[in-house]
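Thread: quick sanity check before group meeting

JM: Hey all, I'm pulling together slides for Thursday and realized we never actually wrote out the predicted structure for the chain we discussed last week. Dropping the sequence here so it's in one place. If anyone has concerns about the input, flag it before I start.
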Amino acid sequence: MWLDTHCHLDAPEFATTLSEIIRLAAKNHVSGILLPAVKASDAASIRSLVRRYVADMPGLVYTLGIHPLYVGQSPESDLKQLEAEIESSLGDPRFVGIGEIGLDYFVEGLDRGRQEYFFHRQLDLAQTYQLPVVLHVRRSQDAILKALRQRTIPGGIAHAFNGSFQQAEQFIELGFKLGFGGAATYTRALQIRRLASELPLSCIVTETDAPDIPPAWLRDEGVAHNSPAMIPRIGSVLAELRQMEVDAFAGATWANALIALPRWAANLNPSRSQ
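JM (edit): ok, ran it. Output follows.
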């Protein structure tokens, strides 16, 4: 069985086909999907989505946060709203952490200072409530590592990791798992494939970032959007890169995800990972 540790099920691309998307993922042995928020105002709709589809996907969970690409349209008051939403969600077993938060130094035209302000304030919330975080780390690894070292945060996941081995080791030392997905299926993605094959198995989790980052075969087929049903095939590619059995890889990445996000375990039957 598999877990998708990063999937934007609330994206407009899924609006008319969401039931089918979730059921197909379940049919393909995906037992859990993590839906990360990108805005403070997403909280109510994300909770509603998760509750609506839990019968089809019992391991459907969510995180709350403000994505760095959305801080430009988020007033500072959104941080207070986010804290209120986090507090009200602490009793919900399907709420598993804070995210998607982080820094994006790749996209041009973003206000770095504003990104950093929102990121640091959200890390403060993670420290206050002792919640793991799901990190957006795009050409910003060193700045994020510096911010993490200034706090005591119970780990989490560095989503779509594409840093150096040295940076990977530093995230691991801070208690983080590293997310790998469709990008590793491209033969030209040499650095990502090296990371996925040579880093300790204990730090790796599987993800899609659907509807984004479609794996190589979808691009070859002219399919624009990724989906959580792709996780088993992505996992098979990652297992092959590591020269290990697929079932063993699935079990290890399942366990890693629950270490990173312990609240997720309450929504999953451990026997289903076998």
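AS: nice. Strands lie at 2-4, 30-36, 59-64, 95-104, 133-138, 156-159, 176-180, 204-206. Residues 112-129 form the longest helix (18 residues).
JM: adding both to the slides.
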